[in-house]
Design goal:
Elements: E1 4-7, E2 10-11, H1 14-19, E3 30-34, E4 36-37, E5 55-61, H2 72-86, E6 95-98, E7 102-105, E8 108-120, E9 123-132, H3 157-178, H4 180-189, E10 197-201, E11 206-214, E12 220-223, E13 229-232, E14 236-238
Helix pairs in contact: 2-3, 2-4, 3-4
The chain binds biotin (BTN).
């Protein structure tokens, strides 16, 4: 399959623009891009600073897999973003994936992914919204952020978008044919901080533990001081300081 592209200029959020065009799905998957977002959204109700020069893209599709497996796509997408980033950064090992779906270069966040679902003609579509900092990065974030051009000065948002489409198409195709196991394995190989202590911040508490695994359903597995395994289904992860 291939993603047909709708290329827009200033938008509120490309995820909303994708949602407004669900009738396009009758012709297969599509992607909506914007030059700039005036109300870009991040995970957990946060905002995503979206000046011109970066990638803002919302890939929209109706997977064959059941709805319960759609969350796996956030790992599929993060892997694809890391594939694309690796094609620009000299030492590929500096590009890592951070649970659940961030991509880091030298430990700083270069990309964020926001998955949303939408009803389209009796089927549930998924909108995979991907932002990649190419020319610029936000400065007031609680985590370290970076832009791809800090590591690959000549990279342009169009080049990065092209690499991303190619990688995502390939990764989704494999996921549909072979399932999540291969994705999970590849993601773990690129995982940031595997085996190291982390703090998971949930809505009502913090969990301290060692990051030991990614569960078959995508949950983060931590081992606490008592040696118990703790499953984290949703939250933010930090390195303890
Ligand atoms: C995060 O890390 O919090 C997720 C950020 C997701 C940003 C992308 S940019 C394209 C798409 N449109 C949005 O409004 N958000 C996503």
């Amino acid at each position: 399959f291939r993603f047909r592209r709708v290329s827009l200029g200033d938008v509120g959020s490309t995820n909303d623009e994708a949602r407004a065009r669900l009738d396009m799905l009758s012709g297969g998957p599509y992607v909506v891009t914007g030059v700039r977002q005036l109300s870009g959204r991040g995970r957990r109700g946060r905002n995503w600073v979206s000046p011109a020069g970066n990638v803002y893209a919302s890939f929209t599709l109706t997977p064959e897999a059941p709805l319960s497996r759609y969350p796996e796509l956030s790992f599929v997408a993060a892997l694809a973003v890391s594939d694309a980033a690796r094609s620009f950064v000299h030492e590929a090992g500096r590009v890592r994936c951070k649970w659940p779906n961030d991509v880091l270069i030298d430990g700083a966040k270069v990309s964020g992914i926001l998955l949303e679902t939408a009803q389209a003609e009796g089927r549930t579509a998924v909108i995979v919204g991907i932002g990649v900092n190419v020319a610029s990065r936000p400065t007031d974030t609680p985590y370290a952020a970076t832009a791809l051009t800090e590591h690959a000065p000549d990279a342009t948002s169009e080049q990065v978008f092209a690499a991303l489409v190619e990688a995502l198409t390939a990764r989704i195709g494999r996921w549909e044919r072979k399932g999540f196991a291969a994705i999970r394995h590849a993601w773990l190989e690129r995982a940031d901080g595997l085996g190291e202590p982390v703090v998971a911040r949930l809505s009502d508490r913090e969990v301290h533990g060692r990051f030991v695994d990614l569960a078959p359903d995508g949950a983060l597995m931590l081992e606490n001081d008592l040696g118990d395994m703790v499953r984290i289904a949703a939250g933010d992860v930090f390195r303890p300081r």
